[in-house]
Write a structure and sequence with these properties.
With 754 residues, the protein is an alpha+beta fold. Helices cover 42% and strands 12% of the residues. The chain is globular and about 80 Å long. It binds iron/sulfur cluster.
Length: 754
């Protein structure tokens, strides 16, 4: 079938019922490659898979020791493949055929004995930011890919019509299939492909899909499937951030399928089998003992967070204006504990044996709107970011509707964080009278108007109306659109539109934590909490009073968190359950007991004897490399880290100032201001000048600690020390390291730089 079908087109086949039936049964193959499945060696397959969809090339590339030593795996491999695969003589746009989607796990991925060891890391040039985006996601795809013999998958080119890729890791076959018969939503595609390819009732497969809205929106996500053994159905985790689902659909990929009938520790071929088993047992045992008395992840998952965030004034409400709301209790963990199905009795680990088991769901959910209205469906989640972004931040305090937004966003292939944050921005503009129904396609987007919110979401799946044509392109796009088409004040939108570098903020109020303002503003990929989450250390505990203290945290934590993405690991087992004596250690925020577990795990798997510091250095290489990749893409300098929306730094309106007046008045007095005769507007202006200066000082201190120039460029010295001084990397560093930053991005004082 394969060779014959290579010349057939889907258009021809749609004319013929016979051919349609053949396609359903025979899965019309456009290209296939048989290969010998390699034996893994200490966590590595030592090869990657390359597919070009423009001409259906399928190639296998080898991985050498230098690539492993320099980039470790996961996101490191993804970025190195993209660095070499994308044209180097120009900025690559997200929808250029040369853009790639890379997916990898890492040397520790696919270990069934370790909690959280089943992650995949996806990268691409983002439609939202124009620079590399990476997303760390659960599900079985990455582990299945590795057991099929590949450390990473690299997809380039664009198909002429919809296709899906099938990787048969049991029989050593890769096939590109016509997908014109597949349905549209993520759930339906997974159902059809599971029926078509499984040989073990779904347990052997992982399917990656997006959804129909990703064809029109920039905020498209990917759904990675895993199998719920007890409920006997496919479940999903999302690679949400930065629009990789949009790139996926732009390449006309409908799905990726990886099949492996069983995964054992033996297949990963660890250097020290017993060592891996022992450290896995130690970590899992601790989780099982302590989770019930700590965050109760096994029962509530990340849904335990809204009440904590509300208590500490950190839960975004009404477009990040405030950090708590009396109505928010309707979205607290006790509500979700009752809403989630069979908590503690289902199979809620998005990786097979994960002791944390935090991926809860609602079975038998009945949507009140849209194409699934009145039908019984399964909602994966909601998790914290969705509850906050599509709940409190848009003033929707009805858990049913938060779950319904969650369900349709996943089905349509939409990132709930970008959706919620963009909706909050539009609602504030609407409420304050900057825009009306003319700008929103007739939708009355007042706070809490959930039926209108869902109507916009349904439009996104059709490409029609305000949702399909404009909203899905996100906050950055809408600032331009509302300014040009409806004359909305651009300064107002810059202040309250919560995006930076083009990516929407994830769901924490950062106004009172300078360190977290840097944790969002000084990131590589845009304001996403997975690089640094410092609010509690800074705002609640005041552990880092100086710029140098904050800069140290803004060096260490992004590096440490990057390490999980290099290895195919979930971060939650690191610090969502901590050792009983953690608070007695010198640096409890780092959870040193668990850093020691991870060093043991890496050593036992790879045979490379490492300490906790070595793990951080692995990340430093990749982190600096990604920064230079950003510069290559024209967006990795100080100017790009500057000028975050002021709502992330302080109170925009006088009303916001007055809501926290005691706190702000004290701060002004502490810097020596006499405020006795000042009105609120004057005080707010003075506070803003002070806070913007501090953000600039923090930028200085952080760059200095990271070994970068004042313009945000890793220095030649840093790059050489890290061993990433490849000629084309050095050419970029040399070109930019002597350049001065724009004067208006610098603070008045040099105190944090000299
Ligand atoms: S901790 Fe939760 S999210 Fe992470 S792997 Fe385990 S079940 Fe999945």
């Amino acid at each position: 079938m394969g060779a014959m079908a290579q010349t057939a087109t889907s258009a021809n086949c749609e004319l013929s019922l016979t051919c349609y039936l053949l396609r359903v049964v025979c899965k019309m193959t456009l290209k296939e490659l048989e290969y010998k499945i390699p034996k893994l060696d200490r966590g590595y397959a030592n090869q990657t898979l390359y597919i070009n969809l423009s001409d259906n090339t399928i190639k296998i590339k080898s991985v050498d020791e230098k690539m492993k030593k320099t980039f470790t795996g996961g996101k490191g491999f993804d970025l190195w493949l993209m660095w070499n695969g994308l044209p180097k003589d120009r900025v690559v746009k997200w929808d250029d055929p040369e853009n790639e989607i890379c997916i990898a796990t890492g040397p520790l991925g696919g270990v069934t004995q370790y909690p959280g060891a089943g992650k995949s890391i996806v990268t691409s040039i983002s439609p939202m930011t124009g620079i590399p985006i990476d997303s760390n996601v659960g599900g079985y795809f990455g582990p299945n890919l590795k057991m099929a013999g590949f450390d990473a998958l690299e997809i380039q080119g664009k198909a002429k019509s919809d296709i899906y890729v099938y990787i048969d890791g049991d029989n050593g076959k890769i096939e590109i299939h016509d997908a014109s018969d597949l349905p549209d939503t993520a759930y339906e595609i997974t159902r059809v492909l599971t029926e078509r390819h499984t040989e073990k009732d779904g347990k052997d497969l992982s399917v990656v899909t997006s959804g129909p809205a990703a064809e029109y929106a920039y905020m498209g996500c990917l759904n990675f499937s895993w199998w719920d053994m007890r409920r006997n159905l496919p479940r999903y985790k999302q690679a949400g951030r930065g629009g990789i689902g949009t790139v996926f659909r732009n390449k006309k990929v409908k799905a990726l399928v990886a099949k492996v009938s069983k995964i054992t520790l033996n297949m990963n071929a660890p250097d020290d089998m017993e060592g891996v088993k022992q450290v896995g047992r130690d970590h899992s045992k601790e989780i099982l003992n302590l989770d019930p008395v700590q965050n109760r992840m096994r029962v509530i998952g990340t849904a335990h967070l809204p009440s904590i965030m509300d208590e500490f004034d950190l839960l975004p409400t009404r477009n990040f204006r405030t950090g708590s709301d009396p109505e928010a209790k309707a979205l607290f963990g006790d509500v979700w504990e009752k809403t989630f199905s069979n908590v503690g009795k289902g199979w809620d680990g998005c990786w097979r044996p994960c002791a944390i088991n935090c991926s809860h769901c609602i079975v038998g959910f009945v949507p009140k709107t849209g194409p699934f209205k009145g039908k019984s469906v399964v909602v994966d989640g909601p998790e914290y970011e969705t509850i906050a972004g599509c709940g409190s931040n848009i003033a929707v305090f009805d858990p049913h509707y938060v779950a319904e937004i969650n369900f349709y966003a996943d089905a349509y292939g939409i990132d709930t964080i970008s959706f919620g944050t963009t909706m909050a921005f539009v609602m504030e503009l609407f409420e304050e009278g900057y825009i009306n129904e003319k700008a929103t396609g007739g939708h009355k987007l007042n706070w809490g108007a959930v039926k209108e919110v869902l109507a916009v979401l349904h439009e996104m799946a059709t490409g029609e109306g305000f949702g399909g044509k404009h909203f899905g392109k996100g906050t950055h796009y809408l600032k331009d659109y509302f300014g040009k088409e409806f004359g909305v004040d651009t300064n107002v939108m810059q202040d309250i539109g919560m995006e930076h570098k083009g990516l929407e903020y994830s769901e924490y109020v950062t106004k009172e934590s300078l360190a977290q303002q840097g944790g969002y503003g000084l990131t590589l990929k845009g304001p996403q909490h997975d690089e640094a989450w410092l609010i509690f250390l800074d705002q609640v505990h005041n552990y880092m009073p100086t710029f140098e203290d904050k800069a140290e945290a803004l060096h260490y934590f992004p590096m440490w968190r990057t390490w999980f993405g290099l290895n195919g690991l979930c971060k939650l087992p690191w610090n969502d359950v901590v050792p009983a004596d953690n608070s007695d250690t010198d640096e409890p925020a780092k959870v040193p007991g668990h850093v020691a577990f991870y060093a043991r795990f890496f050593t036992a798997m790879t045979g490379r004897k490492v300490s906790g510091d070595d793990l951080v250095q692995m990340s430093e290489r990749v982190y600096n490399f990604q920064r230079i990749f950003n510069i290559r893409q024209g967006k990795g300098l100080r100017i790009n880290d500057s000028n975050p929306p002021y709502r992330s730094v302080g109170p925009v309106t006088d009303w916001e100032y007055e809501s926290r007046q005691d706190r702000y008045d004290v701060q002004l007095k502490e810097i020596g201001m006499d405020i006795t005769s000042m009105n609120t507007s004057e005080k707010n202006k003075a506070l803003r000048a002070h806070r913007e200066e501090r953000y600039k000082c923090l930028t200085d201190a952080t760059y200095k600690r990271r070994g970068w120039t004042r313009n945000g460029v890793p220095t030649s010295h840093t790059v050489k020390e890290l061993g990433i001084d490849f000629p084309d990397v050095m050419a970029i560093v040399k070109k930019y390291e002597g350049q001065e930053p724009p004067a208006d991005t610098l603070p008045e004082s040099d105190e944090a730089w000299v």
